[in-house]
Amino acid sequence: MMIRKFLIPLFLTLSINAAAFIYPQTTAIVRIAEKPLRKMARKTVMPDYPKEARKRGGKGVAVAQLEIDENGDVVKVEVLEAPDPLIYSAVESAVKAWKFNAATVKDRGRVRVQGKLTFYFIIDKLGARVENPQDISK
Amino acid sequence: MNANAIQNKIELCANIAIVVFVIFAGVVLTKHLNPKEATPSDGFQSIKIGTKLSLPEVNWAKNRQTLLFALKKGCEGCIRSAPFYRRIASEFKTHFRSVALLSEAPQDARRYVNDLGLNVDEVRQVSFLTLGIMYVPSLIVVDTEGVVTNVWVGLPTPEREFEIWNRLQGSSDKGIPEARNEKTITSEELKKEFGGGKHSVLLDVRERKEFLKAHLQGAKNIPADELGVRAKNELNPSNRIVVYCGCYEDFLSKVAYHALENRGFLHVLILRGDLPELKRAGLPVVETLKLP
Predict the structure, then answer these.
(1) Does B229 touch chain A (CB under 8 A)?
(2) How many CB atoms lie within 10 A of CB B280?
(3) What are the tens digits of pLDDT across the range B88-130?
(4) Which helix (H) or strand (E) holds A67?
């Protein structure tokens, strides 16, 4: 008799747990362009220009795609393009350290964000340096 | 151990077994009966083009064509598709009747549709199984006879969004992309350039993996969504730029064309045709995978 009484709340608890398992929390991911993404950044880290890459003459554009969680932390980085393997690693490390303000959507609250960041690795008479897109003018 | 104790143990085991069975059955039934969430890699259609649909109290002939948004509460793809769905519901309002279909109770469904910011003419509770809708989100176009003319399943990729947009534009006779007066170049004219003379910058605006599979010899790759940031840093506005994508109705090329035009690039041309066609026309193609 005691055990039967105990089973009812146990059953209810298990059912609620099962329902939670069946209908997991979902999170929206919003893709945004680079300009608004950079405006969201509260901590930026420029990639280093690896010495070996410079020696080899490795230069050009590097593009990283990143995913940012609801707290503004970078949770996933994929370097889509880099002119040198060492530059690839440098970009990946740098982008992982970026921090962003949380993105919110009306009536939805905080959301995950996906976007791209572009860097230019330049070697010219001024030397070797890394620049963001808007720093360069033609 | 007396008979009562044994009986109690048996009853306990039976009760536990019933609880476990009910939970297991609930999980299995829920997974099989609920529409699955589609991924972008899923098949193009769940219900088929040509299927005749029947919704209670709906007279298709009375309406304009109908856009059906099949959605489900808690579906991540539905949330992510919402911005695009909102745009098409608004843009094509005068040409299409829009109906949101959900399996939830009407009040819940209406609340969810409002949460998504989706402004539709009607919200309906339906049985997805009965309609043959196996995946959410799904976007379905139905003509005035109740026949499905287009179906798109899952979260649309940027390429798919433009395909959908162009199809709906075509269906609504709202305006053909050519009306925007993009300048074009033929493969014959471009072929002459490879033999000498005027030199254009060939710009392939597809995603990198597509570019790597095959591209026109000498082409530079900047995906269309990166042009806004990269164009001024990597392209010279005084150069003639020939843009191609080889995609459905050249939609990525058109996106790129207008992105460049808006940034002061006034000598942009679109090269129409997909890569196999351009190859057959005699343009040199670099390929890692054999083109048909």
Answers:
(1) yes
(2) 13
(3) 888 788 788 899 999 988 888 999 998 888 999 899 998 887 7
(4) strand A60-68
**B23 with A33: Cβ contact below 8 A:** no
Chain A residues bordering chain B (beta-carbon distance below 8 Å): 3-4, 7, 10-11, 14-15, 18, 21-24, 26-30, 33-35, 61, 63, 80-81, 106-108, 116, 118, 120, 133, 136, 138
**ipTM of predicted complex:** 0.77
Q: Which chain A residues are Cβ-neighbours of B230 within 8 angstroms?
A: 61, 118, 133
Angle between helices B76-91 and B158-172 (to 10 degrees): 30
> How far apart, in whole angstroms, are the C-alpha atoms of residue A94 and residue A82?
13
Across the interface, do A26 and B79 touch by the CB < 8 Å criterion?
Answer: yes
Burial B49-61 (b: 16+ CB within 10 A, else e): eebebebeebebe
What's the predicted TM-score (pTM) here? 0.56
